[in-house]
Amino acid sequence: SQQQLLKVQQDAMVLRAPADGQVTAVFVRPHEVAMPGLPIATISGAARSPTVVACLDEVQAAKISTGEAARLRTLDGTGQLHHAHVVRVSPAVGQLPPRCWRDPKLPSWGRTADLMLDAPADLLPGQGFSIDFLGRQSEHASDAVAVSELGTSQTEPDPSVTKVVPADRRTGTIAMLVPASLQARTRFEPSGLVWVSALERYVIVSDDTGQADADDHAPWLFTMDTQGHIDEQPLVVDGIDALNDVESIAAAPDGGLYVFSSQSHSRKGKRPRHRQQLVRVGFDGGRPRASAVVVFAELLDDAGAERLRPLGISSTAELEIEGLTTTAAGGLLLGLKAPAASSGNALVWHMADPEAMFASGGLQGAGLTLWAEIPLQVQADGKTSRAGIAELLELADGSLLVAATANTAADPAQQDGALFLVGGREHADVPSRVHTFPGLKPEGLALAADGRNVIVVFDLGTRTPLWMELPWPPA
Prior knowledge:
CATH class of the largest domain: Mainly Beta
Helix content: under 10%
CATH topology of the largest domain: Tachylectin-2, Chain A
CATH superfamily of the largest domain: Glycosyl hydrolase domain, family 43
CATH architecture of the largest domain: 5 Propeller
Strand content: 35-45%
Number of strands: 29
Largest sheet: 6 strands, antiparallel
Shape: elongated
């Protein structure tokens, strides 16, 4: 009948959601005309295996293949990692989604890639990620995925295609790849780093964070992958208000980190408490949190001159600590940039039990002693100059790598920083020079992700920072 026909037509006009979720946007209102092919509403719902869409320019898209493994890092400040693989690369260049446009008024063109998570995860619709394509086939990619949309098999991905650094990076310095958005948001002057396996990243500390007029001394750590890409979002350390003039970072025995400020006075002669901090950082659900803090230089001052003399200093007026490394003997080794010993040699202290210091709030039980005096020299302004310690790194065999730069008081216009090897405490008086860095100041040392080579970072002030990977042992 006519009524039944009208009922069928009316039922056909009812919109039915293809999945459970919440309506997050409505584009067509009652009495408006719905045009064929145009969206009427958006429904967002939780999905344990969502698809992640990557926006790629034409050069990037040409370098990835279906089935390739990828690593996703959230942009919400937690730094959470997810592993995924490419299930589809769009077969044509087209207009990218508006969210991917660099200028909201100027459409961007490129190709998209769909990624599937290797394991279920609770993600939010529209959540943002930074993505690393790993240049290898994922073990989670099915045989069907290894076939392109055009029906032809993809060639085995070339492991070099995702590398955006020179192939000879182990023989020279290269520029870190710092996102423009991060450069606009913060000063980035790497002063130390350490590989954190749980994050699959190097965690980097910076002398300064934020800008002078916004987020100055923000409690931020930075992360870098093995190819020198700096992640767009810093790690925000909860539980602490500021990090100021942080010069070093080392692994804590519980999987956390020790973050150490320089303890020095600023150029204005000031030394606020947040410039004197030693912070223990733990990870709570992947998010860094300050679990303990001491104001170290203040503790030294409170201990008095009699306590300082066995450490090789008479006061903390010139104190500047830039070196920090975990030691197999227990605790930490601290390398002083200044002051030098009365002999002119650089000082290294041993803190046997930093946890006792955190627990007591004082030097009691910390076991702070003089470990060694090391004679260090570098070339500065065309002549040989006494050097202080810019960084320390204890190696698996118990030897100690020492990055050296000219003494703070010298303040040269140009210098050639150097790397020395100390074969244990008993050989501290005869360090071996293993590398010289013409015109550069090495600021941070870390074992590479594979545990074999040594990563060195260089602070160039307002210029793009450099890094390099040194083969170890040296040839």
